[in-house]
Each structure stands twice: as C-alpha cells, then as structure tokens.
Design brief:
Elements lengths: L8 H28 L3 E6 L8 E2 L7 E4 L11 E4 L4 H15 L5 H33 L4 E4 L1 H27 L8
Antiparallel strand pairs: 1-2, 1-5, 3-4
Length: 182
C-alpha cells in the first residue's frame, strides 16, 4: 500500500519495460539512418567514364579518383570528384537525434522529431545543390544517380519523425488530467 493505493510490483516492472521498448522503437530509425551513411549515396557518370559510387561518408570530403581507361593509356589520369559538406550536418542531426532518443519524457520524443525534420530538409537542400552545381559545372555532360543510401536516409529520417511525434502525442493523451474537486 502506498498512500492508500495498492501498487503492484509487477505493474511498475511492466511500465518500465514498456517505456524501454518505446525508447528502442524511437531509436531504431535514427540508428539505421546512421548505418545508411555507409551505403552508396550517389554515382556520377559522363559519356566517357562511370565514376566510383560515393557513400554518405565520402561525399562531404570529396577527393580524387583514377579515371584512366583500363590499360589503353599508359598514364594515370585523376579527376577531382564533387564534395558536399552539408551531408555532415545531416549526419550530425541523425546522431544527435539518436542521443536525444535516450532521454526520458518530452525531450526524448520532441527533440529527435525536430532534428529529424531538420535532417530531412537538409537532405532536400543537398539534393538541390548537387543537381544545380554538377549540372552547371559539367554543362549537362555529367549525370547523377541517387542510390539506396540517399533514399533510405530520407525515408528513415521521416520514419523517425513520425515515430517520435506519435509517441509524444500518445504520451500526452494517456497522461491523467487532474481535476480540482472544489
């Protein structure tokens, strides 16, 4: 008995287990988003050469790739490939949202949702920048194909937002309302 109310030990254990399960459901989309940065993000190609596919972790830094023609030339030709530093902001949004998911209460539900929306908006900005910059620089010779990593990051950020918002709304609805017995 606790203050005239019988508290069953099993009820407390099941409430803690339920909250832990909800927390892991909240974390999962953001963790999978971080994993997707290791998958192919974009592949570039032009009429002469298909460049290596870039992952989400290679894209912010750019670099050089060997574009020699499979032994037909006796020298190695290198070309600078495109870099997009805004992908680091998306990665940091997903990592921070993952960390906030471990918080209890309102911050653990609301902040990851906000960061997920911000990350998705940044992904759209990155896509726009890649399309505009590469097309202008290459004079329509270069084509960009968005691969599974890019698409999954966009989808998983939105899934994370939906899960966090759903859990936030359902926690607000399930909270008992205190009435003043005046």
């Amino acid at each position: 008995m606790l203050g005239g109310i019988r508290v069953d030990r099993l009820d407390i254990m099941s409430m803690a287990t339920t909250e832990t399960m909800k927390r892991w459901i909240r974390v999962a989309p953001f963790v999978f988003t971080l994993i997707c940065f290791y998958l192919p993000f974009i592949s570039l190609s032009d009429r002469a050469y298909d460049y290596p596919t870039l992952t989400g972790l290679q894209l912010p830094f750019g670099g050089d790739v060997d574009v020699s023609d499979n032994g037909f030339k006796h020298y190695s030709a290198w070309r600078q490939f495109y870099s997009e530093p805004a992908i680091l902001w998306v990665f940091s949004c997903a990592a921070t949202a993952t960390a906030f998911c471990f918080f209890a209460g309102k911050p653990g539900r609301l902040f990851p949702a906000i960061l997920g929306v911000l990350g998705f908006i940044l992904m759209l900005v990155v896509k726009r920048d890649i399309d505009n910059n590469l097309i202008m620089e290459s004079h329509d010779d270069l084509t960009v194909d968005y691969r599974i990593g890019f698409i999954l990051v966009c989808i998983l950020l939105l899934v994370g937002v939906v899960v966090c918002v759903y859990q936030y709304i359902s926690s607000r609805i399930s909270q008992p309302v205190a009435y003043d017995a005046a």
